[in-house]
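If your schedule permits, I should be very grateful for your opinion on a structural question. The matter concerns a single protein, recorded as an amino acid sequence and a row of backbone structure tokens. Could you please explain, in whatever detail you think fit, how the structure tokens follow from the sequence? I set the record out below, with my sincere thanks for your time.

——
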Amino acid sequence: MDTSDNYQVLIVDDEPLFRLALRTLITESGLPFTIAGEAPDGEEALAYKQQHPEVDLLIVDMKMPKMSGVELMREWREFEGSSDRGPVMLALSSYRDYEFVREAFLLGAIDYIVKVDMDESHVIPVLRKAMSELEKRKQVFPRKTAAMSEGTDVILKRMLTDLPEEESSYLKMLSERGVVLPETQRIAAVILPDSADFGASDAGVDLIPTVTEQALQAKGIHAEMLLYPQSEVVLLFHAFKTNSYMFLRNQLNELFTVIQRRLNRYANLSVTVGVSEAGNVFWRRLVEEARRNTRSRFFSGGGRLYFSDTLNWPEYTDAQPATDESVFAEQTQEMLTALTDSNPEVWIASFDTWTGMIPPGDEQYIRKSFADVVWKLGSLLVVNGCVWEQLPDPYQKPFVLLDHCITLKQLWSRLKELMGAVHAAVHESKASAASSFKGVLQQAKSYIEQHYGDGITLTLVSEWVGVSEGHLSKLFVKEAGYKFIDYLTGIRIEKAKELMHTGLKLYEISEQVGYPNPEHFSRVFKKEVGLSPAQYRERLDAQK
């Protein structure tokens, strides 16, 4: 049989028996795959790549000597430059390798194979999924060379900063490089990460271009992508095969919803998207319009999609008018004065009244007003013999803390935390402050134990106890010796074990302990206990 058109597969695993099993399954599957090679570790896989660059499917074990699967995938991805130029990737893992698998997804893997389930019924569907992805890639326009792509990016960025009247000359240069942007129905979009939490990991931010590329390919939508500082991604869309504006809206809404969900699911990252109107105006103005739309998140919230013609909808506006400037300033001073009272309930009550007001002015004016409050807090510290450096992290750098806030709601929340830290520094000793932080941890644990069955998150619990996510996360590690998610998972799994003694069905138990997806519950349970929920119940029944 002619296999010259088959997809080339490289298997990377340090265990020969698993390589043999996988080779046999792939060879006998009847699918258009050919085993191009095998490697026992990541270093040999990279050496193989130098000699045989045409690899279509890369199957990688997550735990290997010399170089792990995650390291190999990262090296391979950096070498290729983008996910659509490299091979489709599948992860091999044991049931306890969840963190490795999660990182593999962040690096572009489309699925994973659990070694203990390496039989035809589990492996073939994953191979079919990989084949489907490879078939989709065949439909994408021919890719530009790296040199041409680099030159294209420079031209596009110059076009978006130069005078609009110079646009035609740039479009001609782009056309000579095979990039033909539409003259009518032009649309631009901007994607911004909502990485607002001080000290939060930005690991997922680098995945925005990769996830965006994958979503564009899956939807068959073509666009020029530009990367800017602060991880801003700009998209200039090629011509759509329709003149219907509502159809375009629906297509873009589906595209960006997929991107937002994937980033949230695999990278725990929220992004805001601004989309321009479809028009026949200069590209620079469309990008500026899309950027303006993203700024709507300050008042309306991040993680949303903002079209120009929806910004006046009720869900994006606040019916309550802004507070008079003099009234707002008076309440601000009253709240600051309340900080001098040793009873924290006094300033908290005043603060709650203050936050019930809508600050006057635009985002820039509001940020300046909050900065003025911080200066006055600094004066209060100095008067009482304290300095910012005495406060716990991240409150030692208050302006940086507020700069990381991307919405008004976050500004209120972080300022309340900051004022609480200032009040504690002014009125309490270090010992009592340390005791209060332990009290915060106990409050958090108590809340988790009472609400483990709800969709609680680190964000929700930190807001409940009145500290930042980063601070609560550090408290768990430093004071309790384990991560927040480990404590939550442990509580849920122990409750699930208790419910195994009842007549509840497994999916009912899953829902009651906070896992709406029974399949996800089963994976987590097996990771923690070593048995699936069904196996665990069978063992209980056998012991009766």
User: Anything to note?
Assistant: The first strand starts at residue 7 and ends at 12. The two ends are 57 Å apart (CA to CA).
